[in-house]
Design goal:
Structural class: alpha/beta
Protein name: Carbohydrate ABC transporter substrate-binding protein
Radius of gyration: 22 Å
Number of strands: 15
Organism: Streptococcus hominis
Keywords: Cell membrane, Lipoprotein, Membrane, Palmitate, Signal
Pfam family, one: SBP_bac_1
Distance between the termini: 27 Å
Helix content: 25-40%
Number of helices: 18
Region (Disordered): 372-393
Length: 433
Amino acid sequence: MKKGLLGVGIIAAVASITLTGCSNGGSSSYGKKETITFINHRTDWETNGKWDEYIKKFNEKYPDIKVKIQTITDYAGQIKTRMNSKEYGDLLMIPGDIKAQDYKNFFEPLGKKEELSKKYLGMNDRSYEGTSYGIPSQVNATGMVTNMKVFKDAGIKTFPKTPEEFLKALETIKEKNKDVTPLYTNYAAGWTLSNWDFVKAGVSGDADFTNKMTADTAPFSDGKVMNTIYRLLYDVSKNKLIESDPTTSDWEQSKVDLANGKIAVMQLGSWAVPQIQQANSDNAKNIKFQAFPVTAADGKQYMSVAGDYNYGINVHSKHKKAARKLLDWLVNESDYAKDNGGIPTVRGAEYPEALKASKEAGVQLMEETPAPEGKESLFGDINDQSQLGIGSTDKEKQRIIDAAIGNSKESFEDIMKDFNTRWANAIQSVSKK
């Protein structure tokens, strides 16, 4: 699922550390010790010692594989630069905007998608023509991370299920407590805004929604799903229910403020719940994960789920077997998903506590239908051609906020008209190729 799903603690520079574990357990088929490099975005885990713990456990099973961890702050940007060479580690997190037809140029095939899908969730994103090049590190739901105590203190006992109810609830929160920011956009962080795109299938109630968008020349028109989502972002901004100056928002501080009840809600992935709970463990029970406030045409609420960053093996690696052992261990045996508030990739595993409340409320989790064979890259190609950055970049969502708060003279209708034109032109352009 994409960059927005993956906010972590920020470290000023690339951090690198070599980690080795005990050699008093497990077994290895290797005749000599191999060293592999695993590049990832979890800079916070490098500083808090979490990667030390993980690699120590891995080495209990594979003592002859030495793992060098490299963490990168601006992961999405820097790893793509490194991928211009052959030197991008042995195991890495696959950047979200690599074109499907290019997977084979960068990543080792991991098996047939049909077979892997019997064991794992989220196998649609990094597969092409029936072959999988990545396996999700976890599966995330996208919705709203909420401090329910703030809602209850304002007299709101249940989370809203429609945009109208949601706006009214935020207005009430603002009236009851002037010191609370009802919704924090995290405009300045940028990547956080992609989470507004990730809810599209759940809002529609249609697992095939993204595939249908590739044939819809006006998906941003009034009354349609994308318009509904962006309209809510526009309305909360226009009604001054967001941070006073979005351009100076602070991602790290926002997690603390949400935990402490200074923010009511943020649009994020389920991965963010443990980070926010850890910001103030005394208030952890107040932090809940709720569905985007829209009820589908069938009267139900759905929550979109998709793979987080996928583990992939560098096609140029000289240690592919060792890298695969680490990949399989991380997916099958480690607590990575649990520790990050995500749904385990292995089918049948228990859902995290943060999602149980939504499940009890009747919210249904929805994994999108994969693109038809031969059209795996169609949505991405149209998205790239349109330069709208749906699910990948922040520019156009920032544009919506800027219009709402008066930083530009555009109207919401002007922006949606522009989006429709660009999307329609992109469909036509891609169809000719």
